[in-house]
Design brief:
The chain contains 21 helices and 15 strands. By secondary structure, the chain is of the alpha/beta class. Helix 19 packs across helix 20.
Length: 465
């Protein structure tokens, strides 16, 4: 553009009488013109920018924050923003528009700057906030849909299973206490299903569609547990979030909190837990303002809490507050009637997961019943999954299961409620079947068992192998 022409001088004269700031660049992003109002607003003079690429000005000199010229060139449409001069820190409303040539290419970018009064700035920021809120609202709706789907799946869950007198009495107790707000204390060895019982209580409760927060007191370092449970105010300690943080009890308000492994909760924190139960309120770290909370407490532990109380490791008053409804879970070894139910449920789950069709026969069930199950239901689940993963066919099931649990075949058959002859025949059949499976031919099987091949053939026919 020839700035010496009469037309250019007329343009400059007009532009320099405008109240708004004007910034013009060409289609390559080279700065062509700024008016006096632009210089007054920003502190940027023509000598600082005329003839220079906008990209270089933005990256090298950083005179301006939130400029829109490059975005207009890229998107070829109007772009709005709130900008700020880095020289005098004046904030302005910026509008950038492209001017196209006959071929539809951007030949000029005209930027209009208008100083924002405090009120105008607030209005503009409010409009931007509304846009953000609309986005957050859409995200929130999506999360609500996902949460409803999750809750429906939880409602339809059949993880709480069993049969017989023990299961029936446990299920009856859960159905009786679930609709109340009474605190529940679930105890039992590791792996007996304490969390499953807690899930079932919530599933049957009036708080089912409210938050259900599970807190493992042994998994969170003691110096962090208090801030996780009760939250903190901004600036309450070094490293704290500058906005503060809501605690898990606040998040769980109107719902349920599971305090798993509560026997590992530090003593100083136990006194604050007592306040939650007694006063139904929490105080964030760094605050004296109590926050009301309405939560139902379910506590769980594998420790003998009465011993912990007698040794001064657990507060007696907290124990009695938590132990309104005690539920004691028995180890799997004492729940033989549930063993087969759990086994078949896990087998069905992992057969489906790993695309297998394995079954557990009487022989394999006898092995499972001979084992002590120190890890209880959790150990059984892991064993069944491992069995399904490593067994290629049904013939390998008993072999691998005996090996996993270190159960000798003779121990298994002594557990059968059968005659001596029936036990011997069953043992001989499994032994020969395993040998044929391992050694593939009657010749190889006979060699390793130190028998004639004809004997192996006859026994195979007799035993129906």
């Amino acid at each position: 553009m020839n700035f010496k022409s009469q037309k250019t001088l007329d343009f400059e004269e007009i532009a320099n009488h405008l109240h708004d700031g004007i910034y013009i660049s060409d289609g390559d992003g080279i700065t062509l013109f700024i008016n006096k109002a632009y210089t007054e607003m920003t502190g940027i003079t023509p000598e600082m920018v005329i003839g220079k690429p906008v990209k270089e000005i933005s990256e090298k000199y950083m005179f301006y924050k939130n400029g829109v010229t490059l975005k207009v060139l890229e998107e070829k449409k109007r772009v709005d923003s709130i900008g700020e001069s880095m020289i005098n820190h004046q904030k302005m409303l910026i509008t950038g528009k492209p001017i196209f040539d006959e071929e539809g290419q951007v030949k000029l970018v005209v930027i209009n700057n208008r100083v924002l009064t405090d009120l105008e700035l607030m209005v503009e920021q409010l409009n931007q906030t509304k846009d953000k809120l609309q986005i957050y609202s859409e995200i929130s709706k999506k999360q609500d849909i996902e949460l409803d789907h999750f809750r429906k799946n939880q409602r339809d869950s059949q993880s709480f299973i069993g049969k017989g007198g023990y299961y029936d009495s446990l299920k009856q107790l859960i159905n009786q206490i679930a609709p109340t707000d009474a605190s529940v204390f679930v105890t039992g060895p590791t792996g007996t299903g304490k969390e499953v019982v807690a899930n079932e209580i919530v599933r049957c409760s009036n708080r089912y569609d409210k938050p259900f927060i599970k807190i493992n007191c042994s998994a969170i370092p003691s110096n962090l547990l208090e801030s996780e449970l009760f939250g903190y105010e901004k600036g309450s300690f070094t490293g704290a979030n500058k906005e503060g943080k809501m605690g898990l009890f606040e998040i769980a308000n109107t719902g349920t909190v599971l305090l798993d492994e509560i026997g590992d909760m530090p003593l100083d924190l136990q006194s604050k837990m007592l306040r939650v139960l007694q006063e139904k309120e929490v105080k964030r770290i760094g605050s004296y303002k109590p926050i009301p909370v309405d939560v139902r407490i379910i506590a769980a532990t594998n420790k003998n809490i009465k011993n912990e109380v007698s040794q001064g490791k657990f507060r007696e008053d907290l124990y009695y507050r938590l132990n309104v409804i005690p539920i004691k879970l028995l180890p799997l070894q004492e729940r033989q009637e549930d063993l087969e139910i759990f086994t078949q449920a896990f087998l069905k789950q992992f057969n489906s997961q790993y695309k297998k069709q394995l079954i557990i026969r009487d022989e394999e069930m006898a092995i499972l019943k001979r084992y002590a199950w120190p890890g209880n239901i959790r150990e059984l689940k892991n064993i069944i999954e491992r069995l399904v993963v490593i067994c290629h066919d049904q013939e390998e099931v008993r072999i691998h299961l005996s090996s996993m649990l270190a159960i000798e075949p003779t121990e298994v058959y002594l557990g059968f409620d059968k005659s001596y002859k029936e036990i011997v025949n069953a043992f001989e059949r499994e032994l020969l079947k395993s040998a044929l499976h391992k050694y593939k031919t009657t010749t190889n099987a006979a060699k390793h068992l130190k028998l004639d091949q004809s004997t192996i053939v006859k026994k195979r026919q007799r035993l129906g192998l």
